[in-house]
Design a protein that fits this description.
The chain is α+β, with helices and mostly antiparallel strands and about 190 residues long. Helices cover about 15% and strands about 40% of the residues. It is globular, with a radius of gyration of 26 Å.
Length: about 190
């Protein structure tokens, strides 16, 4: 005589196999079948004189997504809208895109950003150069706002740039500061 639970289990297995039952996640199936989201058709722009394009992947820190798009090193000085200024060492300019992909406001603070050099030093933004070049110290990033700007650093003349550590705003309701996200610049 057969064991009735075993017979039932075998019959249930056969029904499942023959019925083509699927355990596929409906959300995963919808994602595979969805067409790509439309994209803005923006024309490419040329890099500025003396600048080289940086092709780095975007990084996220806190509520801010960053992408480094340009780099200038070895600048002895610059001309602003109202004067000329010489570097103590060399100016390094990092062109970034900062974006708030969230639904609430966040804050960008240029003074928190750090340029990294081969000697292990982390250099702060040069506030005077930022002011002369009319770049913001701090600014609010509204929900889904994206800005492009320069970060000006005055570092020793013989220093070799290796990267930049970018700091965003902590998520809403989280106190303290973020750890930063590093982007190599070689």
């Amino acid at each position: 005589m057969r064991n009735p639970p075993t017979a039932f289990a075998g019959a249930a297995l056969a029904v499942l196999l023959l019925s083509g039952c699927s355990t596929t996640d409906p959300a995963a199936t919808a994602a595979r079948n969805a067409s790509p989201a439309p994209a803005y058709d923006l024309p490419p722009r040329h890099v500025r004189p003396g600048e080289r394009a940086v092709r780095a992947a975007p990084v996220t820190d806190g509520d801010t997504r960053f992408q480094v798009i340009g780099l200038q090193t070895g600048l002895a000085g610059f001309v602003g809208s109202h004067g000329e200024w010489q570097a103590k060492g060399q100016y390094v300019v990092v062109r970034i895109v900062a974006e708030n992909p969230g639904r609430t406001n966040s804050r960008f603070d240029a003074k928190r950003q750090r340029l990294l050099t081969a000697d292990g030093a982390a250099h702060t933004v040069d506030a005077f150069a930022q002011a002369i070049k009319r770049q913001p110290d701090t600014l609010p990033l509204g929900a889904e706002v994206r800005i492009e700007m320069d970060l000006w650093f005055d570092i020793p003349k013989d220093a070799k740039v290796t990267g930049i550590r970018l700091f965003g705003d902590p998520p809403l309701g989280v106190g303290g500061t973020t750890e930063g996200a590093e982007v190599p610049l070689r």
